[in-house]
């Protein structure tokens, strides 16, 4: 009650914040006359002057009015687009590191130019993140005209570019690209061997377009770079053949809400009978158990043309939020292979994680993060808790006049689709353009077939027609046009109306079912009613829609029965709308919990990732003296741990002596363990011998000794980090069971993960020393040099042979023969070990 009275007296927090920006908007407006007097060639000069002022210590906040006024005038000249006052407000909010909620059609693409130019003055790069390559290219070319007019450079990052092109794009003042490309470039950079191979600069300022789609919807799926693991693909086909032999409810149960499948006791017995094993839950059969469940999930929870499509003999994921194809992305844990087996296409080998990061942790690395969308206020709490981002709703430039009609609810799908087709045919005859929004590809194709029977011309926009998107969307507001589209989230193209269609009532949005997220419904509605245009929207629902079925349509069904409604009669009731919205809120809450849990676990990995990647950068950029010092420290640590206790004890324990002797042979190749047991060297003596080996190695290859150290340090770090990621995946899979022992799984994951991380750091040091102490240099006469009877020789590394000092050494990374023993000391050939 008190808060309600307070809001009436003082306004909401959002309104009070926006009111504070009014003087800033007035100040920018006051500079417009000055900017109008400038010649075109003055604009780059002004920007260069502002850059110098920033270098001299002037703050961006202080420069904001002048820069925004300059960009506004540049937009008018270069694009024939003048920023509205509400767009200036949006730009100021973005500069302050917040999220702006702006309605569709309010010009978010143009708004971004204001803070992007301002923050680019620091010379550290400004990134604009979009949801797909098409929008990244479109916006970079379109807004690039404005940036070029100001004397700033624009880059774009899209799929298929090589490292040189990427490096050039990241070196520009302003860079556009997709969230996937930015994230994967970060991971790939942290797998490089040399600093000059890095494509990204340090992450400075970022605006995320469709921020809710990227930071919330896609946050459940981490970015993963993987390599092929050693596993048999035959098992997937074998498990696929088992599924038809199992009966639902008898042998297994399906939980659609949790997206999980469980075997019953009868199902376990049936699988044991088919697989001819005694105990499916025996640790030796854990892989079989895992793949049986994945095969069941592939058949019972994942639908073709909904969750994925089959294209060119491959299973391609369909993004559940945007309806877009995601080529190159694969489901993990063998699920993608199970789908390939189900669809009888080639089953690709399972992959092992080499590097991964969640979008939450990637975007939190930017010094300053901001975002824009048409629908963020419903997730304001999550943006605040996860990212520390405040959401501000920016008023529209013109009043919203779209008419949002109440939902119509039918008894079943057949009745609903008949009503939809009737309504579309009526609107088409009237000449009013219609956009029909569907949740899945197969539903869009079903409506298309029904409309074809009614001879209603229409266009279909879904993942299968992805290439024609811009053309289809651009025409969707023409007279009599009917467009069927899967989720419109992040489509990024406004549907413009002419005067004739405005007179007919504007664009009519017809939703065929409610999405589990209210934002996606709002985004669909938001395609109509832009910039004060007329429009209308209505959702058609059925009691057996997935959302209705999962979240209690029984009460509504009983109401319809009591009212004695026919199958083709619809119910329109506020209570029904409230029940649907409550169902959506429950799903949103459930999904938030999933994302929060993912982040809680990844926070542990993120601390480890930062430590490893920081160490990698140190090694990549270190000079020879620094690398030598690092390796010498490793030697000191191991010698101190192995020898000090034993050699200083009055009566050393026999087991300690045996352990020290074995480790001295294994790590340092010092001498046979049997000899060392009789006479362990002192720390000083051992240090002298081991460092002598390094001096000999250095004398044999002085010009590339630095690269030899760098190579083995990075090789050992990367190999052990890869194994650690796999071990952490396994730990996480089973950590939930700790709850049965009255332990907090998250705390146990942190504790055990930390212990595993410490062990990995020791293995990195140990493997580096083992490789270096076994390394031998082999001289090799180059073919060209031999023909000229020259004695110039190359240095080649291998596991045996004496080191000889060459007369000339080519500066290049050290080489190991494919059939040589691996320098890591594993005993395997290089091609089957580190060179695999």
UniProtKB/TrEMBL annotation:
Compartments where located: Cell membrane; Cytoplasm
Domain Helicase ATP-binding: 89-247
Signal sequence extent: none
UniProtKB keywords: ATP-binding, Cell membrane, Cytoplasm, Membrane, Metal-binding, Nucleotide-binding, Protein transport, Translocase, Translocation, Transport, Zinc
Alphabetized Pfam families for the sequence: P-loop_SecA, SEC-C, SecA_DEAD, SecA_PP_bind, SecA_SW
Region (Disordered): 789-821
A molecular function (GO) term: ATP binding
Membrane topology note: Peripheral membrane protein
Binding site residues for ATP: 87, 105-109, 494
Swiss-Prot/TrEMBL catalytic activity: ATP + H2O + cellular proteinSide 1 = ADP + phosphate + cellular proteinSide 2
GO CC list: cell envelope Sec protein transport complex; cytosol; plasma membrane
Biased segments, Basic and acidic residues type: 789-818
Helicase C-terminal domain boundaries: 412-588
Main location: membrane
Residue ranges of every copy of the SecA family profile domain listed in the record: 3-572
Cofactor(s) the protein requires to work: Zn(2+)
Record EC number: 7.4.2.8
Top EC class, one word: translocase
Classification via Gene3D superfamilies: Helical scaffold and wing domains of SecA, P-loop containing nucleotide triphosphate hydrolases, SecA, preprotein cross-linking domain
Family from the record: Belongs to the SecA family.
HAMAP family the UniProt entry points to: SecA
Subunit annotation: Monomer and homodimer. Part of the essential Sec protein translocation apparatus which comprises SecA, SecYEG and auxiliary proteins SecDF. Other proteins may also be involved.
Name used for this protein in its record: Protein translocase subunit SecA
Native species: Desulfovibrio ferrophilus
Source taxonomy: Bacteria, Pseudomonadati, Thermodesulfobacteriota, Desulfovibrionia, Desulfovibrionales
Gene name, Swiss-Prot/TrEMBL: secA
